[in-house]
Amino acid sequence: MKLNRSRTLTILTYTLLILGALLSLVPFVWMISTSLKTIGEALGSSFFPSELHFENYTEAWDRANFSQYFLNSIKITAISLVGSVSISVLAAYGFARIKFPGRELIFGILLSTMMIPAMVTIIPNFLTVTWLGRIGPIKWINNWPALTVPFMGSVFNIFLLRQFFAQIPDELFDAARIDGSGHLRFLFQIVLPLSKAPLMVILVLTFIGSWNSLAWPLLVTNTPDWRPISVGMMNFVTEAGQEIHYIMAGAFITIIPILILYFFTQKQFTESIARSGLKG
Amino acid sequence: MTNRPETLKEKITKVITPRKLRFFKESLTGYLFVAPALTLIFMFGIFPVGFALYVSLHKWRILRTDFIGLDNYVRAIGNFTYVLAFFSALAAILGAVLILKKIIQQANENSQRPWVLCLSAGLYTLTIYAFLRYIWYQLPEFLDIALKLRGVEKTRELFLQFLGESFYAPAVYSSWRFFTLVLAGSVAASLAALILYRKPLRAQFQTQFTLMWIALSLGIGLFLFTYQQVFNAYLIALETNSDPGIWPQVIVVSAGIILLGLGWFAWSSAPKADQAWKFWIRILGAFIFLVGGWILVGEIPVLMATGDKDLWEGLKVTIFFSAGTVPFQLTIAMFLAILLFQKLRGSEFFRMVFFLPYVTPFIASAAIFRQIFANRDTAPVNLLIRGLGGEGLAWLQESKGVNLIIGEMIGVDLPAWAAGPSLALVVVIIHAIWTYVGYNTVIYLAGLGNIPAELNDAAEIDGASKWDVFRFITFPLLSPTTYFLSLIAVIGTFKAFATLWVFREGLALGTTDTFSVAIFLEFFDKLRYGYASAMAFVLFAIILGLTLINNRFQGSKVFFM
Predict the structure, then answer these.
(1) How does pLDDT run across A78-95, given as a tens digit for each residue?
(2) Taking CB atoms and an 8 Å cut-off, how many pairs form between chains A and B?
(3) Residue A125 has pLDDT above 90, yes or no
(4) Which residues of A touch B372 (CB under 8 A)?
(5) Which of chain B's residues have a Cβ under 8 Å away from the Cβ of A44?
(6) Does A52 fall in a domain?
(7) How many structural domains does chain A have?
(8) Does A6 lie at the interface with B, CB-CB under 8 angstroms?
(9) Contacts of A152 by beta carbon, 8 Å cutoff, 6+ apart
């Protein structure tokens, strides 16, 4: 009797979980199936295409000018990553392992800036960036500096790395000190090789962030030269109008890189999110 | 004491010991490590807040024109601005008094008399203000360079020339001179304090005194400024023969807020009364204060009525968005997390699937949802509804309230105020729930992992049912996670932009424009930088208020492990 009851419970659990999974996945399935239809089928009522029209993808790729936007987004992500990681690693190490007066106070101020809504800073930052473009040797608007530099000092990245660096045992540092290595050498030879997991998380988050950012790129770009994929996709959604088979193909194209990245780093990524979330 | 006079070298090594030197070197390394990040975060994260405040006090459409004080705020939230400003001033003065109290207490505890440090701290405060004054004059000169460059050929030489000139504008130059003078004074004062006041806690006392001076001067300054602003507004109202009832309104609402405060104070002090009758007197007093306070505070809507309709509409939409998203996504996530936590086979797979919507780029998933909830009869959701015998709906293009639509279906006429969120907003809400459930599930799973397994085992041995375990163990012990997630989620709905922008394009007739979207439109479409900044500060104030309330609540109600 007891066994029977726990079996029904298991079956119920699985039913609910599968229902949840279906609800999560149906939009994706519908996207893929629609992206392979003709326009008639896409606007019609059948769920699956009668024939698979893979040429929709090349068509969407060309019409949305994805080769340009992809390249832009990858360049933007790469530049932000290099800048942000090198700056955050140094700062996180400073906050985690070097004692200096005012350390906790400064870190507290940094954390509190995370609460400031982007809408407060977006207007002055736009003015600053325009102004910087005028005095500097390179232009900022419609160019990579405006899209990357303001986000290189990421408080979240510093926070994530600091949590990790603080867990590295002191004995390692003492041993390195006895061997005569200073902070920089310790950081590069011991700490960084140990920190592959948080660095991976930063990689994925920066990627997702640059795929998601819309307000700022809309402001600081007005030609396709440096526009990221988010703005490109947004424009394509409005331009393509009723040709939803192309829109779905475009959506899938936008999702693919993130999906690949996510599947490779899935376990570390979700665990880091859970950890950083709980400590937040 | 020896009689031999110390040589200079001995004196130096006495002051600069190797240990101090090492400490100095270590500190310097630390500052160097964090310097690049601090510079960037200051430039694009902290400075902009001050700059936005500056912008919000001006009439500013692409280019800065006149200084107009609080007018942008008055346009946004009506005369309520003045009440808020008065109370911020009051809070700052109160803060100064509290700091002073703390200083006195610490001075007594350590039997010190640090009052002379008050003077040097005053000088430091003056230095800060002198610097801000310099910035106040310098910033427009920098910004005007763009104006001067209009219409002429933009060469670097010309720009550098204008830049050089901007440092030597009369007001800028004199304020810079004043600043350097006061700075020198400050340095001298800090050296004097170092020599004359040789006791522990010197630095701490100086910091506290400086904070006290800043809070005090800020409070008084804001008070005077607001007084002058109200007075001007009052005069203008008199001249134009419009209703000059600003003062009465401001006073009435302020009195109401003070009464509420007194009522709360009486209420919370009641349990401390030593006799029953005193307890009841306090409770009675609290009720009278609270009722009176609420009646007077009831004026607030009148004060705000002169504010911006778009802003209130945006706030309403945001509240619907929050209230429609957060409870559902948290409940579903907690439920899924508990199911997954049983460590059945394949739970890793399910976790991955649930998390998928969260990593999907918002713009792509919003594009998919736009089509799933399209107004065609053949769109998936409409197909489903028609399959069940209903009629297709316009979804994202429907600006009518969802309650009205349901009312029509079952044949009830609802009044306009009960309309609820528009059907378009409901689609946005569904999309938000779909996106964030996975993220919340993952964090709930981690929260469940923190609950000691012995508790559950003990309860089961005592014969508790699964429901009892959930009700009395799991749910209360998850409360810190729930509070954390709800705060993040509510603030997230106030900040949300990208998805709303995609859903908005060509659809929905503005019924999905939340506060953030309204600000962006004001800035991006209407180019009113000053007004948009003022709106952004109102948003900031709301988010700060929510965080404070949450922290207060969390302190008293949540079970911490």
Answers:
(1) 999 999 999 999 999 999
(2) 282
(3) yes
(4) 27, 30
(5) 378
(6) no
(7) 1
(8) no
(9) A80, A83, A84, A87, B40
ipTM: 0.90
User: Residue B257, Cα to own-chain centre: how many angstroms?
Assistant: 21
Residue of chain A whose alpha carbon sits nearest to that of B497: A215
**Which residue in this structure is represented by tokens 């504008």?**
B169
Place B561 in a pLDDT band, splitting at 50, 70 and 90: very low
Neighboring chain A residues of B543 at a CB cutoff of 8 Å: 115, 117
Which residues constitute the domain of residue A165? 64-279
Q: Which residues between 67 and 86 in chain A have a beta carbon less than 8 angstroms from any beta carbon of chain B?
A: none
Q: Do B38 and A234 touch (CB under 8 A)?
A: no
Residue A4 lies in a domain: no
DSSP 8-class letter at B473: I
Shortest CA gap A130–chain B (Å): 9
Is residue A39 domain-resident?
A: no
What residues of A are in contact with residue B145 (Cβ under 8 Å)? 134
Predicted local distance difference test score (pLDDT) of residue A280: 36
Cβ-contact B372, A30 below 8 angstroms = yes
pLDDT band at A2 (very low <50, low <70, confident <90, very high): low
- What would the two tokens of residue B502 be? 């995609």
pLDDT band at A134 (very low <50, low <70, confident <90, very high): confident
How far, in Å, CA of B210 to CA of B132, rounded? 16
Task: Answer with the residue of higher pLDDT: B182 or B386.
Answer: B182
Whether residue A163 lies inside any domain: the answer is yes
CATH for A207: 1.10.3720.10
**Contact across the interface for A17 and B45, Cβ inside 8 Å:** no
- Best interface-test mutation with A: which of B58, B360, B362, B385 has the largest number of A CBs within 10 A? B360
Q: Per mean pLDDT, which range of A96-100, B251-255, B445-449 is the poorest?
A: B251-255
Q: How is residue A44 annotated by DSSP?
A: S
Match domain B309-557 to its CATH number in 1.20.120.530, 1.10.3720.10, 1.10.10.10, 3.30.750.24. Answer: 1.10.3720.10
- Measured CA to CA, the distance from residue B71 to residue B74 in angstroms comes to 5
